[in-house]
TrEMBL record:
Family (UniProt): Belongs to the LysR transcriptional regulatory family.
One annotated GO molecular function: transcription cis-regulatory region binding
PANTHER family reported for this sequence: HTH-TYPE TRANSCRIPTIONAL REGULATOR, HTH-TYPE TRANSCRIPTIONAL REGULATOR CYSL
Cross-referenced Pfam families: HTH_1, LysR_substrate
Domain HTH lysR-type: 5-62
Keyword entries, A-Z: DNA-binding, Transcription, Transcription regulation
Protein name (record): LysR family transcriptional regulator
Length: 313
């Protein structure tokens, strides 16, 4: 496709579906009806689909239009999360709330949490440091941040901790990888023996995998590549570099769209707890306590049964 849809056209399409009227959707965006009609026609040409049925009684989405509007809504929500996260990074120096988060939590959960906090407290400035789980406790002990989020198997010694979500790691491959045609689960030994695209040492994802393989009596994983973020790992697997062990948070959409295939592994526990951590000598108050409350209201408990006692506290 030579040109991507512009965001205003996607917003317009979503609004047409919501209000059932092109003129009403145009008015909400401050557009004239001819301008809005032209935008939709351009969007339809770029996608090669008829998205809106126009008649004297108004405008309504076609079946294709409803599907595209649903995907457009996800794109717009992700954009809002991106802008919220970028603003938090940009204002770190002048922050009233200082937060550190491990890479996966920062990429997939923190923007949504901060977005809700900012809707409650629009005047609040938040500074976000993105690092790996090993480094977050150092920032807390040194007083550089007020609140941290980690994905390590255990809560760090000397810090207060509270569960904010459950997650699980998945073994994923590209659809043309030989494992995608397996009819039986991998064993822990087979997983450990295979060259894998891995997160770097010190990350919560790598620590969780290493610990799970040790508990299963298997060797340490064999790195094919070591990368510094879940997004980089995901992209490498999609490109066909090799299998990876990665958070379900990072690949849900890819699994649904069959860009990636999840491979079952037996005899190994890959569920984990995501935690908020803070220095006990500095009890949470004000914005830090409010952010923790937000995380508790929106817990992405992805793994079935992840709330059971099988996951370490």
């Amino acid at each position: 496709m030579s040109q991507l849809p512009d965001l205003e056209s996607l917003r317009l399409l979503v609004l047409v579906g919501d209000v059932g009227s092109l003129s009403g959707a145009a008015a909400r965006l401050g557009l004239t009806q001819p301008s809005a009609s032209k935008r939709l026609s351009t969007l339809e040409r770029r996608l090669g689909l008829v998205l809106v049925e126009r008649s004297r009684r108004g405008s309504r989405l076609t079946d294709a239009g409803r599907a595209v509007a649903g995907w457009a809504q996800l794109v717009l929500q992700d954009l809002d999360a991106l802008l919220t996260g970028a603003e938090a990074l940009r204002t770190r120096r002048d922050a009233e709330l200082r937060v550190a988060a491990s890479m996966t939590v920062a990429e997939y959960l923190v923007p949504g949490w901060l977005g809700e906090l900012r809707r409650m407290r629009p005047e609040l400035y938040v500074g976000l440091q993105v690092t790996n789980s090993e480094h977050v406790p150092e920032l807390l002990r040194g007083g550089a941040v007020d609140l941290g989020f980690i994905e390590s198997p255990r809560a760090p010694a000397g810090l207060a901790a509270r569960r904010v979500a459950h997650d699980r790691l998945l073994v994923v491959v590209a659809p043309d990888h030989p494992w995608a045609r397996r009819r039986r689960p991998l064993s822990a030994a087979e997983l450990a023996a295979a060259p894998l695209v891995l997160r770097e040492r010190g990350s919560g994802t790598r620590e969780t995998l290493d610990q799970a393989l040790r508990r299963a009596g298997a060797a340490e994983p064999r790195p094919l590549l070591e990368l510094g973020s879940a997004t980089a790992v995901r992209n490498a697997v999609i490109a066909g570099t090799g299998p990876a062990v990665i958070s379900e948070l990072a690949v849900r959409t890819d699994l649904a769209d069959r860009r990636l295939v999840a491979i079952e592994v037996e005899g190994i526990e890959l569920r984990r707890v995501l935690r908020a951590v803070w220095a006990p000598e500095r009890p949470l108050a004000g914005p830090a306590a409010e952010l923790l409350a937000v995380t508790r209201r929106h817990r992405p408990d992805l793994a079935p049964g992840a709330a059971s006692g099988a996951v370490p506290a």
